[in-house]
Amino acid sequence: MAFEFNPEFAIADEHSLRSLFDATHALAIQKCRSTLGIHAQEFIRRSPFLCIGTQNPNGRADVSPRGDPVGFVKILDERTLAIPDRPGNNRLDTLVNILANPSVGLLFMIPGFDDTLRVNGRAVLVRDPDLLASMSVNDRLPKLAIVVTVDEVFMHCAKAFRRSHLWSPKHRQDRTEMPSLVKIILDETSGAPDDKDEQRRMDADLEDAYKRTLY
């Protein structure tokens, strides 16, 4: 049975929403900038991982992870970033969304840091040869780069990461307690084979594909 909630308890307007919370403190407003300051740039240079949020023309949202060696995002100037597009599953959700709606949101993370950096802006897909050459890894160039013009940038506080204990070794979970990626997908679609040897073969094939197609 699908979950249903009493519409009486739905929040339908901004006034009703804001009435539940205290006023924003001055620092939270002041921290928002339109350019990348020295500390924002340093954060980006240290970051090996980000999430990029996009939307299609109908407003359907998508968030995609992007990761590479530390400093993989190029700072072209104080208002422009370039993100290499590495091999993936070729669904191209993020890229197609950008073609239709250039607005993007970026969340930069650094392992061990509880605070994060948020960047909102407008993206274009670029194939400039010199830019792509500067993003080469293992002599392999990305097919394109996502170039983001920054509209808004600010640091985000540590509360979410501290509540989640994301970086704490004591809170790490054992990946083997859940099925492999291949089995999860097959279980929820066409059905995974019962044969354990076949499951292990598919898992080994996935690991081999990771090694061959990382760049």
From TrEMBL:
<dbReference type="InterPro" id="IPR024029">
    <property type="entry name" value="Pyridox_Oxase_FMN-dep"/>
</dbReference>
<dbReference type="InterPro" id="IPR012349">
    <property type="entry name" value="Split_barrel_FMN-bd"/>
</dbReference>
<protein>
    <submittedName>
        <fullName>Pyridoxamine 5'-phosphate oxidase family protein</fullName>
    </submittedName>
</protein>
<dbReference type="Pfam" id="PF01243">
    <property type="entry name" value="PNPOx_N"/>
</dbReference>
<dbReference type="InterPro" id="IPR011576">
    <property type="entry name" value="Pyridox_Oxase_N"/>
</dbReference>
<feature type="domain" description="Pyridoxamine 5'-phosphate oxidase N-terminal">
    <location>
        <begin position="39"/>
        <end position="157"/>
    </location>
</feature>
